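Tokens for diguanylate cyclase. Go.
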Amino acid sequence: MLLDKNRLGELHGLLAIVQSIDIGVVVLDRDYRVEVWNTFMENRSGRLPSEAFGQPFFELFPEVDEAWFRRKVETVATLGTPTFTIWEQRPYLLHFKNYQPITGLEDFMYQNTTILPLKGLSGVVDQVCLLIYDVTDVATNRHQLQAANRELQRLSSTDRLTGLYNRGHWEERLRQECARYGRSGGHASLVMFDIDHFKRINDTFGHQTGDTVIRRVADVVRMTVRESDVAGRYGGEEFAVLLPETDLDGALIFAERLREAVQAQEVSYEGQAVRFTISLGISSTLQAPQGPEQLIAMADRALYESKAQGRNRTSLYSG
């Protein structure tokens, strides 16, 4: 009798632990009906133990992928070993709202889960225990760190004034693209351009207006390029756009569209309209067997040809 009392005391102690721990505990029989439902589950699901006991698990949680979950449980029961899921692979098993004030940035509770085999006196697995761990704080911190890293990456590769790629990142992308074309035998065109008489704009209207003009030109570039194009601020008032899989004729069409769009812009200075234009030069990777430096030099030479011919025009590198 003393042994039975001791065992009964142990059982009560275990039940108290199960009810008080901050982990979801659900025990299912082999027909997937609920046999244990602790306080964590009651609070997160809104269902009392009396409402959950004996109910089919998949009726209580229709969001669970039944075929997938059954495979998991059958593997546990057959092998007699636990299995796990982590939030990185499956954000949650049971769709609970996130009520933690510290991690209130997330709409739902991220979860890790463990499925344990429970053997009866006969040694046969006749129950499985599902443990639900709330890892929303871990997921939130990871997401915030990833977002911060993405922002740092963006800042390290972006020109602060224009939001286009900065020169360092743009040149690295150019080297990568040129290397790719060298392997594949494809080709691309490079468009380099700058703002005409930009020093005059700065001297006449001030550097803030000059910055506004640069930003406006960058906006036009963003509206004109394709998703695959690589656009950057090369320095000062000079810009560059790499056009993958584009021949000189296609690059000329792009450049003229860009030039006309910029010519139609204006910014305001003390009620006065400030107009501006750009001059452009184009080269092709087919003309630059020595690589990106030669490609830039050729496009730059074509740009200065546009300058020499009166500005607000596009020139192709002709050798």
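The first strand starts at residue 24 and ends at 29.
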